Automatic annotation (TrEMBL):
InterPro entries: DUF995 (IPR009337). It comes from the Bacteria. Residues 1-28 form the signal peptide. Keywords: Signal. This is DUF995 domain-containing protein. It comes from Arsenicitalea aurantiaca.
């Protein structure tokens, strides 16, 4: 897996989330203004946001265990990959995923970080580096929530791990 592929997977994390989220409420003038008014989330808020939840995206997802271990699955061009590592949070709104991605023919370490801000009932997220702020959640119920309680990843991850070991 190339660095370009890893960057695509990291971008997929952000893109998958962006596809699953709602727009800002109509009363917010612009996303930029809302983000500017929002405050960085602290480590406790980030822990509550992610711990024990699955982050779904198009061809896979990630699970954030309460002990701060991180597992993920993804598929690119029909080729599966898995990630295992840790998630780290700061009091300045930053959450980083430090994991080794395993795929047919090898493995590669990767670090992907996101900034988080909250304002009112909204949570905003920015993929680093070079991402754009997006609305992660706005307090309204969503048919496709980005984060759901429970582990929806481990069963598929174990099957993919076994498949990759045979290749």
């Amino acid at each position: 897996m190339t660095n370009t592929t890893l960057r695509r997977i990291a971008a997929g994390l952000a893109t998958g989330l962006a596809l699953a989220i709602s727009a800002l409420p109509a009363q917010s003038a612009t996303l930029a203004e809302a983000v500017a008014k929002a405050k960085p989330m602290n480590a406790g808020e980030l822990y509550e946001l992610y711990a024990g939840k699955t982050w779904r995206w198009g061809d896979g997802g990630a699970y954030f265990a309460a002990d701060r271990t991180f597992t993920a699955i993804a598929t690119e061009d029909g080729t599966p990959s898995i990630a295992e590592g840790r998630w780290r949070i700061t009091d300045t709104g930053r959450m980083c995923l430090e994991a080794t991605w395993r795929f047919k023919g090898g493995a590669s370490p990767a670090v992907t970080c996101f900034q988080h801000r909250s304002g009112g009932r909204a949570v905003f997220q920015l993929a680093e580096p070079g991402g754009n702020w997006s609305v992660m959640m706005d307090g309204r119920p969503s048919q496709y929530p980005p984060l759901v309680r429970g582990d929806e990843i481990s069963q598929r991850l174990n099957a993919l791990r076994a498949e990759l070991a045979r290749r």
